Amino acid sequence: MPSVLTPHSRNVALVVAAALFTQILDGVIIVTALPQMARDFKVGTLEMSIGVTIYMLAVAICIPAAAWLADRFGARRTFMVSIAAFTITSIACGLAQDLTQFVVARALQGAGGAVLFPVGRIIVLRTAQKSEIVSAIGLTIWPALFAPVIGPALGGFLTEYASWHWNFWINVPLGIAAFVLVSRIVPPDHEFKRRPFDTVGFVLTGISLAALLYGFDALVQGTLSTTYAVALALVGIAVGTAAVFWLLRRDHPLIDLRTLKIPTFAATDARAGVLLRIGINATPFLLPLMFQVAFGLNALQSGGLVVAYFFGNLAAKAFTTPTLRRFGFRSVLVVNGALAGLAIIACGLLGPATPYPLTIAILVLAGATRSMQFTALATLAFADIDAHQRSSATTISSMSQQLSSVFGVAAAAGCVNLSQLWRAAPAPGLIDFQVALMLMGAIVLLASLYFVTLHREAGAEVSGYSKRPSRSPAQLAENQES
Fold it and tell me: What's domain 1-187's superfamily in CATH?
């Protein structure tokens, strides 16, 4: 049965969560500052999108090295160096005088912070007992729920009343605080592995991830022609295939792909879990656009509705652990996954004339089921991971989530565009967003059914779930007599 987190495990998880919050907030907050930055740099606003893209590419290229760095130098030390690098490069981003300087600083910032998420999760897994994993990983997911809610408002406030520079300089006090807390609370490393660095594996995986992410991102943003974007994605797939063959043949691969032979990990981070994340990640992208483009709401009204969606995310945290304990991973992933898919489909049925309370209720339900599904996926992924597999597992999981996030947005945008082309309409309309949401919901609904193939008590050591065999009337009578 899952136990309450010990004070030490809770503190470690909270410290890691605080560091991750800084990184996630940085990715959200910058969007509101781009127009002002474009004016200062004397470039077009669309040109500033390269600052977002270059950061994403730097993270993608460097993530595969997370497992080796944590094993070679220790997770705590790597985490602290990453925090320091992210903080220092944030200063450089704020000091940039033109677009070229900014792009270089953002690339270095992405490289510096790339391993924060996977290495932070390694630290949490090493500290928590198996019975504490649900609660511990649940704490590290909070930043991803809070940052998107407060990020745009905070970024707008800083840009309006201070300057765009403070969207980056705010990372300095946050980074210093995180560095100090990690040094005092996270225990020193005792696990080291001296293995050679797989340079070829690093180059292949980096090129594959960068090409895939940039190719799909370019399809959404329109920064490249469709032909070039698709060609990039195909290059990523081809190089990724070569990377898999290379990693499987190496005695000391950069990433140990044998981890994917574990059924629970493969299900959550390589099979159905990927499709679930793609469908669910499409929703926060589609909803604000639908509210503004199709409903005719302004940014403030649209933001208010999106807050209801993220409120559902936060509210679900209170009952996620008890639900997993009561019903187990398999039942939760199947039933809650189906509900998540139906909730997204219900979002596709919304319209300007939908009663406001009903709209809010559907958004809260969609957010709550999203949160529970992500927590269940993230926790089950590590239920059967041995100590020597943690580093590779967290790196693979981070890569999978990075790809799923971009693919989700690309798939959503593609659905909207295809629906618009099918209607031969000059601009996207309500029906196009509804079609996209319904398709994404159908993907989530169908993918959730895959988890029926898991053992009923999969991950029971982590969730605390145990199927109690029913007793016959004769057995009950015998117990009463005794």
Answer: MFS general substrate transporter like domains (1.20.1250.20)
